[in-house]
Amino acid sequence: MATTIREIAKELGVNISTVSRSLNNSPSVSAQTRDRVLEAARRLGYRRNARATALRTGKSGIIGVVVGDIVNPFFAQLADSIEKKAQDLDLRLMIGNGGEDPHQQEQVVGTMMEHQIDGLLLTPAGTPTNTLRNYVKEIPTVAIDRSLAGANVDTVLSEDSPAVDELMKHVTRQGYRSAVVISGPATTSTGLNRERLLSQSLRDIGVKTRTYRTTYHEESGAEAIAQALRENTPDIVLCASAVITLGVIAGLHRHGLRVGEDVAIATFDKVPWLVTTMPSIAVIDTKIDEMADIAMRILRQRIGGDLGKPLMKTVTSQLLLPAEPGAPHGTP
């Protein structure tokens, strides 16, 4: 038979209301009491009855998370980070794949709303549909990593300018004179902003720059670098995301070019495989964990009834320079 909150209360010698408020993370309960209740709940095998809770409180305790494309290692890492933050806040997740398609995102969010999610964390894919814009008016929503065009919602983004400034100093020190920028689609805020920031920064320091706009897929990165190499081989390739970089690495290898020796690479997104297997690449770490933490806390406040004006929060990215042989990635 399932453990009840009455049994937890009896075990600890406290009121049932104290157990209930502790399990619902009420601010009226001390941290010490909450920890005792949560420990006892785990020990006794308590499981929350989601349907009963939803009927009683009008809230499901479920957060919807829709990422750009789950096959992109950045978004897989983002979803993992959000899940860990949700566990800390005693929330459960329903994760959906947007597939970098606004219509698919609309369908996924619609399905989540049918399951009565309390709030939504969303990485917008392209220009949102009118239906999606209407959905986010109905439930607390935080856009993360990308802004949601035409919608008045809380937003958490990376601030990349300081890291790019440091990257330009590195480019100058290395004496690179030609560069290729491979950016994401202009329909996403990160794709457009990173393209402009990288291209203009390179030109400002006198580096001859060619820009190729592509999609956030591995094969797109390979096609873009193949197109660039038909003209000439650049000193450095700067990529707007790790998944593009994966394709660029494969494309360079097909042309017999060595990463870090024949062609340097710099990329956004610190994903595990990149920093462990390709230490010769400069990485702009967009601080996924920090963005997830801020977004989850804002969403929790909105679900709790905070009706303040939409917030715009930024997390400052950090440049990790290529490692010396045998050393980890490091800062400038």
From TrEMBL:
* InterPro entries listed in its UniProt record: HTH_LacI, Lambda_DNA-bd_dom_sf, Peripla_BP/Lac1_sug-bd_dom, Peripla_BP_I
**Which Gene3D superfamilies does the record associate with it?**
3.40.50.2300, lambda repressor-like DNA-binding domains
Q: Where is the HTH lacI-type domain?
A: 3-57
> Which Pfam families does the protein's record reference?
LacI, Peripla_BP_1
Q: Which UniProt keywords apply?
A: DNA-binding, Repressor, Transcription, Transcription regulation
Q: Which SMART domains match?
A: HTH_LACI
Please provide, alphabetically and separated by semicolons, the GO molecular function terms listed in this UniProt record: DNA-binding transcription factor activity; transcription cis-regulatory region binding
Superkingdom of origin = Bacteria
PANTHER family on file: HTH-TYPE TRANSCRIPTIONAL REPRESSOR PURR-RELATED, LACI-RELATED TRANSCRIPTIONAL REPRESSOR
Protein name in the entry: Transcriptional regulator, LacI family
Name the source organism.
Answer: Mobiluncus mulieris ATCC 35239
**What gene is this protein a product of?**
cytR
